[in-house]
Design goal:
With about 160 residues, this protein is α+β, with helices and mostly antiparallel strands. The chain folds into two domains: about 35 residues; about 110 residues, Rieske Iron-sulfur Protein. The chain has two helices and ten strands. The strands form two sheets. A six-stranded antiparallel β-sheet has the order 1-10-9-4-3-2. The radius of gyration is 23 Å and the shape is extended. The C terminus is likely disordered.
């Protein structure tokens, strides 16, 4: 084996050492990557507003309300006993108002046939590229449900479902 072949030949020990160093670097960088993604979702506090009629919702149903202003349509979903989610009704694609479909438990945009999952607000299919903004909820004295802020989700989520335009 000449000197050139020796320089190109990697020993098993050198390969394992390089692999260990690379793996360690990836593990140390992972928390920073997670923080970067989390920083893209931001919570904006607004004046708290009691959601009238929330206590009357049956599991699997929805209630339309406005939050944070009367010009901001929102929807409250009661997914199961004691489990609520609320979202802005403005589609993240073109701003059309999404509607809750109790049978499929999803939020549908009539403008371009986009759909969002009711449990997470994530895009199921269609042209939207990011989830719906989530309304932050709080249960207060007497079991009343209040909207207290909005979680703005800037993270683009790409799904594997069929794309419709």
């Amino acid at each position: 084996m000449n000197r050139e072949d020796n320089e190109l030949h990697t020993t098993r020990r050198a390969f394992c050492a390089d692999l260990l160093l690379t793996s360690t670097a990836v593990m140390l960088a992972a928390p920073n990557l997670t923080e970067t993604v989390a920083a893209q979702n931001s919570m904006v506090a607004y004046p708290a507003r009691k959601i009238e009629g929330a206590e009357l919702l049956l599991p699997g149903s929805g209630l339309y309300f406005n939050y944070p202003t009367r010009n901001d349509p929102a929807v409250l979903l009661r997914l199961s006993e004691g489990e609520y989610r609320a979202y802005s009704r403005r589609c993240s694609h073109a701003g059309c108002s999404v509607d809750f479909d109790g049978r499929s438990r999803c939020l549908q945009c009539p403008c371009h046939r986009g759909a969002y999952d009711g449990r997470l607000g994530h895009v199921m299919f269609g042209p939207p590229r990011r989830p719906l903004d989530e309304i932050v909820l709080e249960v207060r004295a007497g079991g009343h449900l209040w909207a207290v802020g909005k979680s703005i989700r800037d993270t683009e989520i790409i799904t594997q479902g069929p794309q419709r335009r």
